[in-house]
Amino acid sequence: MNGVPEDLIVYEIAVVVPKRNLNEENKGYDCVEVLVNEFRNVGLIVERVLGLSDEFIKLAAPLETLGRVAAKMQMKKTTHIGIDLQFEWEDIKAFVRQPDGSLFSWCERFQCYRHLIYEIVNKKNSVVTLKFDGKEIQWEAGESLLQRLELEGIVKQVFPLHDEIKRKKLLRSWALNWWDFTAQPIDEIYAYFGTKIAVYFSFLGMYTRWMIFPATFGLILQLIDFGSLKLLVFPAFFISVVLWAVLFFQFWKRKNSALSARWHLNFSVSTSEGYKLSGREWNSLQPPLELVKNSGIDKTKEKEALQRYEWFGYLKRFRNDVIIILSIICLQLPFELAYAHLYEVLKSDMVKFGLTVVYLLVIQYFTKIGGKISIRLIKHENNENTEYQADSLVYKVFGLYFMQSYIGVFYHALLHRNFMTLRQVLIQRLILYEVLENLVENSLPYLKYSYKKYRAVRNKKKREKGLIGKIQFATRVEKEYLKPTYSASISEELEDGLFDDFLELALQFGMIMMFACAFPLAFAFSALNNIAEMRTDALKLLAMLRRPVPRAAATIGAWLNIFQFLILMSICTNSALLVWLYDQEGKWKLEPGLAAILVMEHVLLLIKFGFSRFVPEEPAWVRAKRMKNATQAQDMCSKQLLRTISGREKAFGGYIRRKKPVGTNKTQ
């Protein structure tokens, strides 16, 4: 099914229920037995596995089952002529397959599974009484069975399963393949994990490859003493780094567009220059469906209601942003400045190191509190969907991390103007933070898994007191159940583990860019760290964690704007560092050197905003393909509309029903 041989069943979803002793006489009324029978009735293949304390219901779906439920869901898929049409199982050959040969992507399959298992409802007009270990459960008419069992605590979890064949293949070709450095099987990652994770690893790989240039330049600056020429070499390094960053993100947009086209994440059909990716509208505020439905004939009231909804949405978001900004200024800023001042006045390096460790531990709790407050505020915003809520959360939480990561460095750089102290702080922040982050990120999942295994074995021995010997987990599905989920450190409901991975990259990028002139060697450290990060993140996803729930977002979202903001900040901070380096006596006179730095800053700002015009965000072949698809769709719609107007067809998208001439015999 879907890219694998037909005789090989791939179980992709697991449902966890408590293990129990079931009498034969109560079997027909048991809620779990009813659930399993309903799974089979909707076309799923079911396998039941007994673990130490739970039972696992593994689910697989034949291609026909997925196809028919996709048609029922009115899922849009790309056809061979490049137009997205509603999927029909009978016209399967008209739709484009995925790069791995499968008909449905992992994200589409997951949506079909969710529809299948959660749309099992009580179709009777009366309440059905089910039983579970002597407890009666009332299954209301029209109610979802799985949701009822989740509310009752009978269904513990529903989670996606790893495909062992594909997982082991990715382990060999990706996670354990250290010799290729930045090469990654992006298409296979997309087929296995979905769009969002594939886009992250594509970004990480391209970012690391592009970092070779500034890393080499920075290494040369660190190893060679240029003497008095450093007043010329450092500005040249600064200019080259800013141009590198601006070019990188322009070319990343091009690559992102190419990936979307290759994975058939097609643009909406439009002949205009503006476009939108499927599943992500560019407008941030969408009026609710009820407001649109309830709009009556009175156009004035309808317009007022929509305008009121729009502006209230903007005001709510502005209010929440003001709350976060004031919290950062009034609460976090004094704490950060106190740490920076203590670090400056302390003499012992060991004490400074210990202070930094304590500070990093304490600030994590502050950030978690800020993240929880941000989540509560976001729930009161008029965001269109979950992805926009996630972007709003990213902006707010990054403000907290921006303050904690950079305010101390700004303190040393701009107030005390101590170059050696600034470099020590940068080394500690880069190396200590990244080493600690990698240790926690890769060891914590294993420790959680080991603890869950220990608890499961201990509970088994408590229930069966006469049990002697070593207890082992015989089934892989139970081992996967005990593994941690790929969740964010701030919010599991809006973000997954990609939040922490992107946050780590953004903080690293800000550190090496904003203080490039002070510590050019940081680019080399970051390049080495990112090479290791690619493999450790891959190993974490494939071996240490459950298979993540796929997300359909085809871009890096809010993180792109954050990276662009950090480029602007780097132009300002490096210009200040060059002024400090040039004017060591602190005269601050507008001499030719200082004037040249100010001119250079303004020129770089103009270049930053002007490069988007010189480097298109779409490759030529993607743009041509998009315009061709839009033209074909327009021609087809025009012909279809003409047939409808002339009465030769029943409906715009329906079956053809041509009118017969008057007087024609029906038997002809």
Description of the molecule:
- The chain is mainly alpha-helical.
- It has two domains: 13-161, no CATH class; 170-224 and 233-263 and 309-618, no CATH class.
- It contains 20 helices and eight strands.
- The chain has helices at 31-41, 63-72, 106-118, 145-151, 164-175, 186-193, 195-210, 212-223, 230-262, 289-293, 299-345, 349-378, 386-416, 419-463, 476-482, 498-514, 522-544, 558-582, 592-614, 620-645; strands spanning 13-18, 45-50, 54-60, 76-78, 84-86, 128-132, 135-139, 157-160.
- Strands 2-3-1-8 form a four-stranded antiparallel sheet, with helices on both faces. Strands 4-5 form a two-stranded antiparallel ribbon. A two-stranded antiparallel ribbon has the order 6-7.
- α9 runs antiparallel to α18 and α13 packs parallel to α16.
- The longest helix is centred in the middle third of the chain and has 47 residues, at 299-345.
- The radius of gyration is 30 Å and the shape is globular.
- The two termini are 45 Å apart.
- The model is unreliable at 1-6, 267-286 and 650-668 (pLDDT under 50).
